[in-house]
Amino acid sequence: PKTVYLKDYRAPDYLIDETHLTFELFEDHTLVHAQLVMRRNPQAGSGLPPLVLDGQQLELLSLAVDDVPLGEGDYQQDDSHLTLQPTRSEFVIDSSVRIHPESNTALEGLYKSGGMFCTQCEAEGFRKITFYLDRPDVMSKFTTTVSAAQRDYPVLLSNGNPIASGHEEDGRHWATWQDPFRKPAYLFALVAGDLWCIEDSFRTMSGRDVALRIYVEPENIGKLQHGMDSLKKSMKWDEEVYGREYDLDIFMIVAVNDFNMGAMENKGLNIFNSSCVLAHPETATDAAHQRVEAVVAHEYFHNWSGNRVTCRDWFQLSLKEGFTVFRDAEFSADMNSRTVKRIEDVAFLRTQQFAEDAGPMAHPVRPDAYMEISNFYTLTIYEKGAEVLRMIHTLLGAEAFRQGSDLYFDRHDGQAVTCDDFIQAMEDASGVDLGQFKRWYTQSGTPRLVVEEAYDPVAHTYSLTFRQSCPPTPGQEHKQPFVIPVAMGLLDAHGHELPLRLAGEAVADGTSRVLAVTEAEQHFTFVDVAHKPLPSLLRGFSAPVKLSFPYSRDQLMFLMQHDSDGFNRWEAGQQLSVQVLQELVDQQQRDEALSLDPRLIAALRSVLADESLDAAMVAEMLSLPAEAYLAELSEVADVDAIHAAREFARAQICAELFDLLWARYQACREQSRSTPYAADAAQIARRSLQNIALSYLALAGSDEVVDVCEEQFEHADNMTERLAAMAVLVNSPFESEKATALAKFADYFKDDALVMDQWFSVQAGSPLPGGLERVEALMHHPAFTLKNPNKVRALIGAFANQNHVNFHRLDGAGYRFLADQVIALNALNPQIASRLLTPLTRWRKFDSARQALMRGELERILASGELSSDVFEVVSKSLV
Ligand code: DPP
Ligand code: ZN
Questions:
Q1: Phi-psi category of 431—alpha, beta or left, where left has phi over 0 and alpha has psi -120 to 50?
Q2: CATH no., domain 750-880
Q3: Which of 414, 788, 818, 874 is most buried by its number of CB atoms within 10 A?
Q4: Is 239 assigned a catalytic role?
Q5: Which tens digits make up the pLDDT trace of 220-235?
Q6: Relative to the alpha carbon of 262, which ligand is closest?
């Protein structure tokens, strides 16, 4: 495969003003007729260069320019392009091709999911549908006619508004849709199937009524209300917070079972992985409900940040994704607990994105090069990209940020633009120079920020020294200093916040403020500080950096209790846990008896005993850092020692705090029994506390705990409690209770694909010995198939990403298993194959024996035959 470089970007030679598509859908093939109204791009030079259309796996049936049929000598065709020589600056191309959605297992382009036809065109799937200029800076007005057998495909959908429909004699029917907004081909969508929908409406801020519809296969019609509620909340929020109004008369979502991503923001016709839109209390957990709310919002928000203003080229992907993730995160924070949302996002970022930024696929938020763009739908583009937007918001303030976003949407409506254009709008609206800040877009790697303090008891000054650095990443040996916004405060000995006045300032400026660290080394001196304070740094995780400050454990306990910033209270607890767990890892590695610092128990005891604390915060504070996070923090990750240390700490917590955990568990469960389920913040908080308490209690191994576990499993009225109880049993030594629960669950839910995904995941993630054998056996379960991405993620993905002790078995069998699956999937679905590879790319984190085994499997994949560009890029870069 070829590498594509940002520096080679050139405007398109030709433009497509109108795109008229006709699809004739049949069971064994589909015909696509495309009429493209084209002209020379006046911005791209003079003369008439050859026209090079993208097209892959298309059987060309006919081709004409301005109604004149072309013969074989009039064009050239290879496996990805069709080239012809225009003779006029304005012309119309007509093409007919045959494609095979019925055998498309890559789930890119037009394909079948179960009995329905659907599309996924981002990033470069449209070229598998028809010959086209498949690039985001070619924007066109689309009219789409779909024809199919009426009995099997009564519903025919595409982007925009329905303008005509009719019946043919042979049992077929057709519908025509017109999208009045110009859009790139990646936002095209088509759906045909036997679908039911629920319908609602939304009155926009200017008083227009928009019809809202969510389509599903009939058996899922009862799982749509939460998605619909989420959609209406999103529409309202985007009006209130960003002033963005919806622009078509109809907005549709379709749920499909086989989908590579979470969802896709096609104009007016979002297509969703059913896991991201279906939700019902009996089948979906609280986490799933929250995910639905977030993804519905995310895709809806793309209507402005992505569709009305789109990307010039795929290097700018974070322009729409980072911005839209930031928007959906703020939406979720407004709908639920802001602090808890931030905690979850930061824990995810630090575990997963930081690992990516430290690995062979590390790339800037705006990459310079790629082989396969599908590989760049990454945590860096999405999550780090969102952090970059959050930092801009922090540096400019909410008001100037909003003015910047208004200017951006206004200035670029209908255009395909760059990250630089976005920054320019922010600068123009705020007057803030973001020149140096832009390094966040061009430099990869996670910056380190080392902080030191100095107190002068005579002068009453307190100084903080910040030293920033960033480790080398592929292609980037040396980094320039970043602009790092550090939100901070100072606490006195009673835990009160001090007024913050920097040397040279006339008056103090509040008790929490943002220091902009812009140099490799920089000092800030606060004056009027009567006693040595304790700093609270990087409040709300104000920058995606690894900050270190030499806190003692006692100081961390103090911050846990007193910091006014909820995020930093949690963070102090995490740092305390990390210190304590790292000490246990050391003991384990030295073969010493493990001994847990009692301060951790004391800290958790006071958290548990404090009934005034938000239950969600208690649950978060009780959650020890994940094994993956501890691995990420290690120089060389010792998976067995990490697991042993963490399990030891959990057992100690259970032993020392059993009575408190029991009391809180019982109180929560009692409330669950007496209140009908709602996916609201208070109930979600209660259930998370209840479930984490149960997971600790189970470590006692006593009969009374097995009983409550079974009671919760049997009698819960919702999946959050039922699944948690089953997971506790699965991870316990109670073999017969475990077997009974798994069998009952599978029997009851066998026809619900999304519930069975959870059943697979719980087992795949269990760290008990024999994990690989269990997963291999589950691969033969009738509900499992490699052809469904959700199943692959639920079983193989969960095993390789969440089950460290089993996946990293010393004999390499876990690695071999994963490589076998990647090789099989490479032929079926390259995007999923490449995604699945991620754990093997992290080989540098492990001891030399494991490194050799992991590399060996990467090499075996490389030698396994013809590789997709997706898999080839990741494997070859990982082996460098
Ligand atoms: N569907 C993906 C997302 O919304 C890609 N645009 O992020
Ligand atoms: Zn997105």
A1: left
A2: 1.25.50.10
A3: 874
A4: no
A5: 999 999 999 999 999 9
A6: 1
